[in-house]
Design goal:
Elements (H helix, E strand, L loop, with lengths): L1 H19 L15 H4 L1 E8 L8 E11 L2 E10 L6 E10 L7 E7 L2 E10 L5 E5 L6 E5 L6 H13 L8 E2 L14
Antiparallel strand pairs: 1-2, 1-8, 1-9, 2-3, 3-4, 4-5, 5-6, 6-7, 7-8
């Protein structure tokens, strides 16, 4: 029995590593000269290409902070409805040198690291687009929990211009009324 459980744990770990490996297909552009002091703080996840930990989450946001090039990224979300307890997990990492602060490496635990690519940030640091190598995952972020349809469409178009498939994005409910609406998770 111990051998079976050990084997299953190894397969699960290999599957997670393979599914989250840093793919070579970087996007065409990254944001230039990201001001980490202005970037830090709360970002609401307006839409994403959800991966298994984000599927079905509502009210998702993260708080990011930087100290001496080190990143702390704390993700928060409710599972399926706003009455559920707020789940949280923390990623630690670093800003990759010579990337204009637009590429980070984050980890839930050593030795596993993920790339965080700041593709675009608005001049007022109110919206941001974040990608992942290979364009398999992406996030549309805002300082505010809600975004009008025109602003969302404009940001989705920017993601498409970077090679991300807009049909894979799902809006994340940030209010109770958005749960179950078309286009939302």
């Amino acid at each position: 029995m111990h051998r079976i459980l050990t084997g299953l744990a190894c397969l699960l770990t290999l599957g997670l590593v393979a599914g989250c490996a840093d793919h070579s297909g970087l996007p065409r552009t990254l944001a230039q000269n990201v001001d980490l002091q202005r970037y830090q703080g709360r970002w609401y996840i307006i839409a994403n290409i959800p991966y298994f930990l984000e599927k079905g989450k509502v009210g998702s946001y993260f708080d990011v902070s930087f100290t001496d090039g080190k990143v702390v990224d704390v993700y928060n979300a409710h599972d399926t409805n706003f009455d559920a307890k707020l789940d949280q997990f923390t990623l630690h990492g670093y800003v990759v040198p010579d990337t204009g602060n637009a590429r980070w490496r984050e980890s839930p635990f050593w030795p596993l690291y993920f790339s965080y690519l700041v593709l675009d940030v608005s001049p007022d640091y109110q919206t941001a687009l974040v990608g992942y190598p290979g364009a398999g995952y992406g996030w549309i972020l805002s300082r505010e929990p809600e975004m009008d349809d025109a602003a969302y469409k404009a940001l989705l178009d920017k993601m498409a211009a970077e090679g991300y498939d807009p049909s894979l994005f799902r809006r994340v409910p940030q209010t109770q009324a958005q749960i179950g609406q078309a286009g939302f998770q």
